[in-house]
């Protein structure tokens, strides 16, 4: 019995296509079906994390180890500043490019602002709004004026 046959509530005109059957057999769950080829919505399960490799470090730990050595810390700062130039060339001035221009990682800026790296990521990507005070503190830490900071936030579409 194929998984497509396990969806009994579908009318004949809404039955899964062969592409749908292959998606369902890959573990996707059909959560919504309406008429039309673009109306099928699938949710794929999150793949399991890869197994840990003995003796391997995650990237945050590795960068923290490198940053302990002054020469490596300077190299990381320089690399971030160079990367900011590439971002600004392609995307214009963004919160991410301003942070990188200051030579800071999300984690370092988060620690200075008393928040989490995840919060910094959400704010840089427009998934979390921030107060005027938070914006002022952020601008102070990355050493830009509020006009520059405001320009960098113009492209954000804050989703609630």
From TrEMBL:
PROSITE patterns on file: HTH_CROC1
Superkingdom: Bacteria
Gene3D superfamilies attached to this UniProt entry: lambda repressor-like DNA-binding domains
Region (Disordered): 1-23
Domain HTH cro/C1-type, residue spans: 95-149
GO molecular function: DNA binding
Protein name, UniProt field: HTH cro/C1-type domain-containing protein
Phylogenetic lineage: Bacteria, Pseudomonadati, Pseudomonadota, Alphaproteobacteria, Rhodospirillales
